[in-house]
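Hi, here's the filled form for the chain we discussed.

Project: internal
Contact: R.S.
Residues: 288
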Amino acid sequence: MFAITAITGRVGGELANTLLDTGKSIRAVVRDKSKGPSWAAKGCEVVVADLEDAESLTEALRGVEGVFILFPPIYDSEPTFPELLPRIDAVRRALIQARPGKVVVLSTIGAEATQPNLLNALGMVEAALADVMLPITFLRAAWFIENAEWDVASARDEGVLHSYLQPLDHEVPMISTVDVGRTAAALLMEHWDGHRIVELEAAERVTPHQMAAAFGRALGRDVRAQVVPREQWEVIFRQQGMRHPTPRMQMIDGFNEGWIDFKDRGAHARKGQVTLDDAITRLIERKG
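And the returned structure, exactly as it came back:
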């Protein structure tokens, strides 16, 4: 049996369905018991646990062959990520006490970056679990193609993709969440000792121009990429409700300047199978 946290999300859901399709048993770990019945209907054992509650999480992770851990994304945080600390502590304690057979933790490209930015949060996760004596894989995934969900409306209504990634011909390592879930499932079925890092990106890197063209093909209209000037970012992000935009801005700088990347530009990264066109088409269909 495999215990899956964040099973109601895109990555966790794809992972769980992939394992179910291969005949594996799943323990669905949910924070809200109202989210459990749909997974119970698929034959999953459902348990309620929170990533900030070490006691409930320990019971959820006990006696399983493997565990998938996904920390809730942080988009708007102080640079020290205070909301993350109790979650790291609870997960660490639960893993030590429950001692599952193996663990896959979703991390990120840039987790090892020393420059301040939003992705330092998952670097903190990796560091905090470094002395946990279990087989642990940190799955460092590239920029999610599905982050383009925020661009659907402007691409559809204006024919414009407002790009913070720039210059517009700069190639960015990306990956579909479908591939992240499927890769996490494959990793859980592997055997390894100790700790390891697995990098994951799409077969080809993506430029903002290519992203706009994919939107155009999916929408059946012309879509062009347009740079959002760096000096406007903070104002825009604050207008969107962010209180701490600096870490997010630093992260985007890292992708644009190239200091957030896999150390060998992905030469040894696993490659996803979902194409940019397929991911964007699916995204538009989901948004309606």
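Let me know if anything looks off before we file it.
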